[in-house]
Amino acid sequence: MIVLTETPDWKAVLTKLDHLERQNRRWRLVAMFSCALAALALFMVPAASQNDQESEVKAERFVLVDRSGKPRAILRTSDTSPQLTLLDENGRERVALSLGGLFLADAQGHVGTILGGAPPLLVFSDPNGQSVVMGVLVDGPRLKLGEEVELGALNGSEHGLAIRDVKGQPRAILAASTSGPTLTLSDENGVERAELAVVSQGPILGFADAKGQPLVGLGAAPDSTALVLQHANGRQGAVLSVAPSGVSSLMLANGYGNQSAWLHVPPQGKPVLALYDGLGGSRVLSAP
């Protein structure tokens, strides 16, 4: 048996135990915060490193494949332009996008649609070579249907519609210019043979021979309406005219352009016929 020689100081013991308990709680709180900070640092360091790695990726070519491993999209660069190409399940290029434009192809690889930017153009074509072209050129907008029909700026001063034959020769041109609208018809050699125009003096209809030499002209001007027939050398051969005053006249000339006969019919009075011999002499006949 153990015999206590003196009574312990229980109050001092309890005070000391309480002090040790508070000290242990402080150490546990410190340890808890230390572990939390260590864990946070552990998670933050790899995240920062991962962001640094993903900030920039460099390559000359990216290939996107499907589940079977076939390329379906290619992003690449060349010496002139970057390009994005989309492929079908058979490996044919169907869509291509570059700085030069957008190109769409069919299942056989024929490029049927082109959208370009310098100058702006939109092209539709079939495998047989037939095409539709819409664009804005230096001289203005233009629409071209195959090789036969062209609508828009025909030259520097005219805008209109041009119809060509299978050889590319212009056969009909409907145009509008500063001088007025015109309709021109040409033969298979491209020679203008007929023209209908409306100018400031009035409407004009003309016909030419195979060399383009005018032969017939019909016009309505403010001072008269006239039909003019010319020789192949360009000299007038006959002129039939009607004036607003009611005077009608017919002039006939030889191949040199010299007047040979002249018929004058006034609105009132007697008609007059004058005949010329070509040597300066004339004979005038009047109705009785």
Characterise the protein shown here.
This protein has three domains: 59-137, Outer Surface Protein A, domain 3 (Alpha-Beta Complex), CATH 3.90.930.1; 147-218; 223-288. The protein contains one helix and 22 strands. The model is unreliable at 1-17 and 33-49 (pLDDT under 50). The chain is of the alpha+beta class and 288 residues long. It has a 22-stranded antiparallel sheet, with no helix packed on it. Strand 16 and strand 17 (225-230) form a beta hairpin. It is rod-shaped and about 110 Å long.
- List the helices and strands in order: HEEEEEEEEEEEEEEEEEEEEEE
Number of helices: 1
Largest sheet: 22 strands, antiparallel
Q: How big a fraction of the residues is strand?
A: over 45%
Residue-averaged pLDDT, rounded? 81
**Helical content, roughly?**
10-25%
Q: How many beta-strand segments?
A: 22
Using the CA coordinates, give the radius of gyration.
Answer: 49 Å
Instruction: Label the overall shape.
Output: rod-shaped
Number of domains: 3
What is the name of the CATH topology of the largest domain? Outer Surface Protein A, domain 3
The assigned structural class equals alpha+beta
CATH architecture of the largest domain: Alpha-Beta Complex
The CATH C-level class name of the largest domain: Alpha Beta
Q: How far is the N terminus from the C terminus?
A: 187 Å
Unreliable stretches covering 5 or more consecutive residues: 1-17, 33-49
Highlighted features:
288 residues; alpha+beta; Outer Surface Protein A, domain 3; 22 strands; 48% strand; disordered N terminus
